[in-house]
């Protein structure tokens, strides 16, 4: 069952909103998720885009008709700049305190105690090659002083959040050490983050260029094998509804 749909948001199940956001700096779309338990007046934002995406994500939340005051939690699925970068801007745009959640293994990177894992010349050059010259200059300046934020609470594998009938945390390392995915029991939705990507409704597996440990990343997909999944949502590529189990099995067996 699905509900609201407009140019910024698609409600794929009650209280489950897929936000459609143009990524800052790069010619690509990203799909953060907003989970809203209206009865509890509590919403959780999953990931925040690049630096410069914070206000656009706020506008997408407003387009979902979810009160900003209900967004009391931001859950960061992992440390990559296109997931954590918009958080400072988003936090500055709201008037209330927000709790930030992440896995322990990625916490020191998100908080700036360690440099972001993919902050290296090879990865940077690959991204810069995709940008126009002016954007590339701004991006280089950004990475000289990347945004960081404090993580208030730690998430662990198997932990279930009391929201929308239960949201279970699945530790899926490989793309980063502390990468997590989420499973929504009531709606049978798998939120993959970057454990998988999608292309025109087909799952493509983790991006090998941006996944330092592909063997572990593929092994992590086996954690999805026994879940009852009607819909998967990838941060890169969006919504996948057809033959999700079969597609995951094919990726594992490659």
UniProtKB/TrEMBL annotation:
Stretch forming the signal peptide: none
InterPro entries assigned: DNA_methylase_N6_adenine_CS (IPR002052), Metallo-B-lactamas (IPR001279), NDM-1-like (IPR050855), RibonucZ/Hydroxyglut_hydro (IPR036866)
GO biological process: methylation
PROSITE patterns for the chain: N6_MTASE
Source taxon at top rank: Bacteria
SMART domains reported in the protein's UniProt record: Lactamase_B
MF (Gene Ontology): methyltransferase activity; nucleic acid binding
Family matches, as PANTHER family: METALLO-BETA-LACTAMASE DOMAIN-CONTAINING, METALLO-BETA-LACTAMASE SUPERFAMILY PROTEIN
Name of the protein: MBL fold metallo-hydrolase
Source organism per UniProt: Alicyclobacillus acidoterrestris (strain ATCC 49025 / DSM 3922 / CIP 106132 / NCIMB 13137 / GD3B)
